[in-house]
Structures are given as structure tokens and as C-alpha cells.
């Protein structure tokens, strides 16, 4: 039997780290290839919808340096999420770590369409938890993914 090809998506949130601990614990003795991915989001009009700020009007007022700083910060957060997540997976180390770009759901769906993994594993909620049972990224992946999605809840404290 060939190895299970799994994509583990992380944003460094408690929920995504719980998903990584689950993979580490449950898949350590299995034949599995884990590709660890995080998404750097380009500072576009989607950023301005968070926190009640107008949709896109501020984008036109931003200079190139500010946009570049936001982009670098997003890439740094994605790299930090990969590092923190890989560090808690000693028994099931990722075979590859990738920073994807774009909106998280779009980037993850595109990656899975191009690489055909057997499974996507995500945490239940990301950094922006609005008291919902399932976060917006995990919910959208359940709706749009062509491969199975495993949504892992947070561990008990």
C-alpha cells in the first residue's frame, strides 16, 4: 500500500496546532506523507472588510511601501506558523513545508487540485473565531474541496 498523501494547513492558531498534534499522534506509525502549508494573503480589498473598515477605499490610499510591508508581514506570519507547527510534530515530520499565496480557501483548493492529496487536515477555527462551530476557512473547504477534509477541534485545556 502506498503512503497516504496528506495536506496539513496551518495558520499558527490554537486550532491548527491541535490539528497538527492530532496528525502527529494518530499518523506517527502510519505510512504517511505530510505536506505542511500556510497561506500568505496579499493585502487587497479583503483586508479592509475586517474590523468594520470600508471595502477597498483605503487600498487606493496606501503607498507601495505600506503594501510591501503588509505583504512581508503576511509572509512572515505564514513562515512562523509553519515553524511552530513543524516543531510540535516530532513523530510525523512534514516532508515539505510550503507558503501558498492568496486567499486561504482559494489557495488550498488550487493546491489540492494541482497535487491531488488524499486528505486535507485543518483546525476547526483560525485566528478570527466568531463563536461559530466551524470557522469560515474550514467550512468553505468542506464546501469546495474535491478531496476529503478532516476538521480537528481544539484539545481540552
How would you characterize the overall build of this protein?
It comes from Sulfobacillus acidophilus. Belongs to the universal stress protein A family. InterPro entries: Rossmann-like_a/b/a_fold (IPR014729), Universal_stress_UspA (IPR006015), UspA (IPR006016). It is built from 4 helices and 5 strands. The chain is of the alpha/beta class. The protein has one domain (4-41, 81-152): HUPs (Rossmann fold), CATH 3.40.50.620. A 5-stranded parallel sheet has the order 3-2-1-4-5, sandwiched between helices. Helix 1 links the parallel strand 1 (4-9) and strand 2 (32-40). Helix 3 runs parallel beside helix 4 (136-144). The model is unreliable at 45-56 and 127-133 (pLDDT under 50).
Measured as a percent range, the helix fraction is 25-40%
Helix/strand-derived category reads alpha/beta
* CATH architecture assignment name: 3-Layer(aba) Sandwich
How would you sum up the global shape? globular
Number of domains: 1
Report the portion of residues in β strands.
Answer: 15-25%
In the CATH scheme, what's the topology name?
Answer: Rossmann fold
Strands of the biggest beta sheet: in what spatial order?
3-2-1-4-5
Mean pLDDT: 83
Q: What is the top-level CATH class?
A: Alpha Beta
Low-confidence stretches: 45-56, 127-133
What summary fits the major beta sheet?
5 strands, parallel
CATH homology superfamily: HUPs
Number of strands: 5
Radius of gyration: 16 Å
Query: What's the helix count?
Result: 4
The arrangement of helices and strands along the chain is: EHEHEHEHE
Amino acid at each position: 500500500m502506498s503512503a497516504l498523501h496528506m495536506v496539513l494547513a496551518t495558520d499558527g492558531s490554537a486550532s491548527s496546532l491541535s490539528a497538527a498534534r492530532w496528525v502527529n499522534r494518530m499518523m506517527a506509525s502510519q505510512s504517511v506523507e505530510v505536506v505542511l502549508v500556510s497561506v500568505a494573503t496579499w493585502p487587497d480589498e479583503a483586508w479592509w472588510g475586517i474590523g468594520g473598515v470600508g471595502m477597498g477605499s483605503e487600498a487606493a490610499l496606501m503607498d507601495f511601501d505600506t503594501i510591501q510591508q503588509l505583504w512581508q508581514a503576511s509572509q512572515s506570519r505564514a513562515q512562523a506558523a509553519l515553524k511552530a507547527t513543524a516543531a510540535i510534530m516530532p513523530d510525523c515530520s512534514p516532508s515539505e513545508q510550503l507558503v501558498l499565496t492568496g486567499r486561504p480557501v482559494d489557495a488550498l483548493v488550487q493546491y489540492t487540485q494541482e497535487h491531488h492529496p488524499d486528505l486535507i487536515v485543518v483546525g476547526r477555527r483560525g485566528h478570527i473565531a466568531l463563536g461559530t462551530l466551524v470557522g469560515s476557512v474550514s467550512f468553505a473547504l468542506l464546501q469546495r474541496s474535491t478531496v476529503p477534509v478532516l476538521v480537528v477541534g481544539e484539545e481540552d485545556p
